[in-house]
Amino acid sequence: MAGRLSLVFLCSALPLLVASQQCDLQFDGRVPSNFVAATFDKANNVFNPDNVFGQNLTLSQVVQLQSNLSSLFDDRTVPVEVTINDESIFAPSATNIQNGFRRAELLIASNNGTDASTTGVKTLHFSLKKDSNRPLNLTHEYQLVFLESSDFSTNQVVLKTGTILGQNTPDPDTLQLFGNVNSNPVQTLFSTPFTAGVFHNFAVTLDFGSLTTQVFYSQGCQALVAQTDALANDVSGQGQFHFGLLKKGLNGGDDIVHNGEQEAGINEGIIYGGIFEEDSSTGCISLSR
Ligand SMILES: *[C@@H]1O[C@H](CO)[C@@H](O)[C@H](O)[C@H]1NC(C)=O
Ligand SMILES: *[C@@H]1O[C@H](CO)[C@@H](O)[C@H](O)[C@H]1NC(C)=O
Ligand SMILES: *[C@@H]1O[C@H](CO)[C@@H](O)[C@H](O)[C@H]1NC(C)=O
Ligand SMILES: *[C@@H]1O[C@H](CO)[C@@H](O)[C@H](O)[C@H]1NC(C)=O
């Protein structure tokens, strides 16, 4: 053997019949190939090094770079797995220990809660994939991607999987994108089986003026396809986009943040690729690279 062969299957740019646009970027969360795990611990202009992860962990302990994977919009950029374990207990302050959750999420460095990523018309892109070595426990509810308002009172859009608390979940092995969780009833914008072994690609167009959300989706290297029209959904309140696992505990009553029960021995993760946000105020939406 002439040395170690490392194959990365890229989704090449599609020249034919598919809108392959270059829209203006609001932020780019695609991980440059020169990043190592330790890069996540210091200011790096891609992800916030300080949040959100366990009080006694560092972000470099949480992330696993997947240099032999590539998602639809990765272009010499590297998918990154976000992991949780028993130590993934976030403490926003010394007296607020979120014992009911196990969580680790990447935040975009420029997305401070009041920046332009939550104004105008923007399209959020991300791809995500299971890791067969770190399966989730579908008895629990997980938030995998969400926008949390700047006053922390709601999630205007949230991608979940597992058994959703307080509602019937016919098949917990499903990706379900919900609208604003403070609406009654909460609107299911889109759902699809969380098939293993393939990247699930999402684009979500958020109109912060008209208060609508439109969902695009595809798998693997296929171009995104619109799954909905622009649906009424209250995306007001600005805030921050989270990419990672927020695992909710069971039997937490009216304080799941602190009282939810979590079993020991957690070793779980989800792989993220192609995170970016583009300006869609002129109608520009990238459907493929
Ligand atoms: C991908 O890379 C990771 C980390 O180097 C390795 O553990 C894994 O076996 C690789 N997977 C494949 C399919 O080559
Ligand atoms: C972090 O470590 C300290 C010292 O061991 C411990 O007292 C504390 O409970 C830990 N915090 C969490 C959230 O596990
Ligand atoms: C958030 O970012 C915007 C855009 O860069 C900036 O104008 C604003 O001052 C920042 N806010 C805070 C609290 O840092
Ligand atoms: C999954 O979660 C349930 C509820 O917390 C727990 O009883 C069960 O042991 C977990 N399964 C695994 C494989 O960890």
UniProtKB/TrEMBL annotation:
Residues annotated as domain Glycoside hydrolase 131 catalytic N-terminal: 25-283
Keyword Signal: yes
Keyword line: Signal
Pfam families named in the record: GH131_N
Residues of the signal peptide: 1-20
Keyword Transmembrane assigned: no
Gene3D superfamilies found in the cross-reference section: 2.60.120.1160
Protein name per the record: Glycoside hydrolase 131 catalytic N-terminal domain-containing protein
Organism: Neoarthrinium moseri
